[in-house]
Amino acid sequence: MKYTTIEGIRLRLSPPDTTKVHWVGQNEVLEQLLACWLVLGEGDLPLCPRLVGKPGTGKTTLAMAAAQKLNLPLYIYQCTMDTRPEDLIISPVLSEGGKIEYQASAVVSAMIEGGVCILDEGNRMSEKSWASLAPLLDHRRYVESIIAGIRIPAHPHFRCCVTMNDDASTYELPDYILSRVQPLIEIEFPPREEELEILQYCIPFAPETLLQKTVDFLQQAHQLHLDISPRDGVQMLRYILKRQKQSSASVDTLWEEAVKKIVGPEGLNLKELQKKKRTHLQNETPTQDLDELFLTNLDQLSSWISDPPPHLKKKFEELLQSEEDKDSTWDEDDWDEDEY
Description:
By secondary structure, the chain is α/β, with parallel strands linked by helices. About 40% of the residues lie in helices and about 15% in strands. The protein contains 13 helices and eleven strands. α1 crosses α2, α8 packs antiparallel against α9 and α9 packs across α10.
């Protein structure tokens, strides 16, 4: 365990991640990330970009590879919906001797050690947690711990980025945070040659015919805009090769089994899967009720009141009638001066 002392408070640091990775292809996004972390002179500050893409496209691997390029220690903080502000900074823990120690998070440990911090799946974290990082992500470059009662400045070498999955099960980042995690670097599905290289790197012992079959499957899925990633391809290959060790079934049989287990039964017919996805999106029309309606545009609100859509007109009339009924039943005896 490594310790440090800040403003008289002893902190136990989190260990860095020592996993070695290899980034295959898409050199442009790697160069973009490294450019964000450059410091061009006195007064300049590194940027904290957000890496956005579908699950399994290599966002975290990209950030890890960039940290390796800079030869900086790497710290990864896995963001969740349950992440609290103190989880991001300093938490009290019970030591072996029964004493309370202050445990620095991966974020704070990276700040102190001058490393790279990856806020993984950052848009799964609530605004309350993001607010605690606001001063770190602008020119101030520090965080404050209410629990330990200290302010922690970031080392000049400290770098940060945020990975975000492009799906619906996430929070919208508030504008004041979004303006701090710039620019946006999009990670797309790789082209065929690079996807084949990824599979070969991850599973070097896989037969060439099986690799080609998997790449064909993935590329068809990408062309149909289906969310089947290189990670899914790697898992399919691993499953097939493991099953071959214990089963005499044909490769085609094991292939279908792998698709069903990892992508789902609908993965056996990608075009049919695409049709189902389109139908689902078309049928997924938002149901707007006045009780849930949130409008920030006053002009739009005025037009809706003067000429409401049919599905809201009845609701408006009911609410207006309700208010009229309240006014008509009001009596001077209802007035309570003490209450107001």
